[in-house]
Amino acid sequence: MPSFDVVSEVDQQEIRNAVDQASREVANRFDFKNTNSSLELDDTSITLRTSTEDRLNALRQVLEEKLVKRKVSLKVLDHGKVEEAAGATVRQEIGLVAGISSEKAKELNKFIKGLGVKGVQSQTQGDQLRVTSKKRDDLQTVMAALREGDFGIPLQFNNFRD
């Protein structure tokens, strides 16, 4: 029976490359001189630090440009609130969203059922969704509908089996 998996994954290498490129650009740009601006990446988040909120917005824009150039969806970014930090600086924590939460999985299941495509079934398996059908064309219809929908997370389709 044909099937495919709906997943939401983050390419850590591409994010690391984008953060490195953004850090290099910030180090060389004149408008960031003497602002102590920095970007730090760990496993689940990116931390932006700089002197003012305006510089923070510019820093965020540089990071987003680099992510877009590397074909990383901006939906993986979960912007935290801007916090005052020590030494009259500001910082912002940007979380990296990976995996499909149980609430999103329910929303996706409901969406797939609401399409009304006959014979299509979907079930949650951990942090991914498995969609099965007897007809391959029905699966491609579901894929197209999921691509058009906006669920707040980046969706990828893998493990397509005939």
From TrEMBL:
<dbReference type="InterPro" id="IPR007551">
    <property type="entry name" value="YajQ/Smlt4090-like"/>
</dbReference>
<dbReference type="InterPro" id="IPR036183">
    <property type="entry name" value="YajQ-like_sf"/>
</dbReference>
<protein>
    <recommendedName>
        <fullName>Nucleotide-binding protein GH723_01170</fullName>
    </recommendedName>
</protein>
<comment type="function">
    <text>Nucleotide-binding protein.</text>
</comment>
<dbReference type="Pfam" id="PF04461">
    <property type="entry name" value="YajQ"/>
</dbReference>
<keyword id="KW-0547">Nucleotide-binding</keyword>
<dbReference type="InterPro" id="IPR035570">
    <property type="entry name" value="UPF0234_N"/>
</dbReference>
<dbReference type="GO" id="GO:0000166">
    <property type="term" value="F:nucleotide binding"/>
</dbReference>
<dbReference type="GO" id="GO:0005829">
    <property type="term" value="C:cytosol"/>
</dbReference>
<comment type="similarity">
    <text>Belongs to the YajQ family.</text>
</comment>
<dbReference type="InterPro" id="IPR035571">
    <property type="entry name" value="UPF0234-like_C"/>
</dbReference>
